[in-house]
Specification:
Chain lengths: 175, 70
Amino acid sequence: MPGRLEAFVAGDQAAFESLFREHQREVYGWIVRMVRDPSAAEDLTIETFWRIYRSRARFDPSRSFGAWARRFAVNVALDHLKRAGRDRARLEPIADADGAATQPADRDARRSILRAFLKLPAALRVTARLALVEERPYHEIGALLGISPAAVKSRVFRATRLLRRDLAEWAHDRS
Amino acid sequence: MTDREWQLMIRQAIEAERWPELDRDLWPRMQARTAAARPSPSRWDFLLLAAIVLLSLMFPDVLLHLFYHL
């Protein structure tokens, strides 16, 4: 009797539904952090799973479904960010996780950093997020984005340089 | 500031944001998407079918020849 992943590859709807229900929150979580728009993130979650469903014949059931889904999610989010452009990116930071406990100076610092981060071009922003925030290895990011580890390194370098340039004055005051 | 300090600062700023969790099941929307994408017969398919039926009624021998060769 085939497992759930084998059944999914064979086109079994029940297997797809089971995988969808298990992974939808995780995929939504990845996407909303990249696109910063909960409403768009729902649509993009559907789009991610739609691409996954259409590409099911290429999936190797011996590999992780989550890792495979992540690759689709990153690219769907990136496509959306490129289409939307930086003008439509949500620039105002949302509620901090530690809320009122945060000092106003720290909140201002975070906002400055976030604004600078959101000004980065979409491809640099997504790469920088995966490398600097999630600390994923370059070869893994390369596999997710379909680029070489050297290209990942170059994007991270460019993103860091742009962020430093944008935040130079603020960092100078701070030090 | 060192690269590591920059990285930590960026990480803290981004991780401090709290995004809402998905609070509903998206499966019904996913199901509608897959159902809408299933290929449905076009009017050309129906026209072709009608032409075959019409030809087989007008020239029944053609069908016999066709089955013989199949």
